[in-house]
Amino acid sequence: MPNLLILGGTTEANALARAVSDRGIEAVYSYAGRVDSPRPQPLPVRVGGFGGAEGLAAYIRESHITHVVDATHPFAAQMSRNAIDACQSSEVPLAALTREAWTAQQGDAWQHVPDITAAVSALSGTPRRVFLAVGRMHLSDFAAQPQHHYLLRLVDDPEELPLPNAEVVVARGPFTEADDRALMQHHGTQLVVSKNAGGSGARAKLDAARALGLPVLMIDRPILPPRTELLSVAQVLDWLGHP
Ligand code: 3Y8
Ligand code: NAP
Questions:
Q1: Which CATH number fits domain 4-100+223-241: 3.10.350.10, 3.30.565.10, 3.40.50.300, 3.40.50.720?
Q2: What DSSP line would sit under 39-98, residue for residue?
Q3: If I label 156, which of 33, 56, 135, 137 is the partner at 20 to 30 A Cα–Cα?
């Protein structure tokens, strides 16, 4: 009988947690502890870092974990790298539950940049009204371009902001196109900045941008070392031998 560790924090991780719980498979769901009140889960939850790859390997051994599913966000690159190292050293099978990158469709006006630093550079120039929908953790990078009027969407109310000209919407996804369209029209958005998260939980702003004829600055996801990558809960259950 498997004893599964789910590295969570995404819509897909939550769907997996429900399926695993429904089947009575022993599992624990792990959050980093990034937000004040993470979504409750139908599984036992642990919150906080493990202490690097070594700490994760120790956790796997001490908790007699038999399988690890890395269902973290494509930009949670450090966690994913640690999972690969820790599962290698503790000889426990690892699979990633991930989602295809978004690709531009007819009517999209995307400019791709390789990472957050390149996105900051691409924002040089005259002031614009920018919907900076990349969360909180990298906001200080964008302080290099203070000239814009930013619309920020954050999961928790921020203590202070590193941007002089910004308004904050406190909301957690999944979001809808209608709401994102209304939000962007109300703000007078001229440019949307987005991570290429993939999945359904954050794509509303891209559909709204297309509908409004707005350009998108699309930040490509970090490159990860090779690992087993699955694209659905069903594939994970098969991988666990629990279809
Ligand atoms: C703590 C756990 C669900 C899962 C919800 C998904 C979808 C909605 C869209 C926008 C983009 C952003 C952000 C986003 C989305 C889902 C999913 C997703 C983007 C929660 C959650 C945790 C986090 C952490 C948080 C980051 C931030 C990123 C906000 C839970 C709600 C911008 C990523 O304040 C902070 O420190 C926030 C940190 C990492 C990125 C950043 O750099 O700030 N996610 N998000 C997880 C943990 O502690 O382990 O409470 O549910 C989960 C979700 N956020 O169905 O309910 O699956 O991707 N999360 C991005 O894509 O750019 C918002 O606003 O359009
Ligand atoms: P990260 O930069 O890859 O990870 C940094 C460190 O945070 C990791 O080394 C680990 O600490 C800890 N950590 C990350 N995810 C963890 C988890 N699920 N359980 C336990 N510890 C975790 O990660 P991040 O980008 O900050 O993402 C943190 C969480 O937010 C993840 O659950 C991710 O799925 C979720 N999330 C992130 C984004 C995003 O845009 N980055 C978007 C949506 C959701 P130790 O080294 O001490 O073990």
A1: 3.40.50.720
A2: PP-SS-EEES--SHHHHHHHHHHHTT--EEEE---TT-HHHHHHHHHHHHHTT--EEEE-
A3: 56
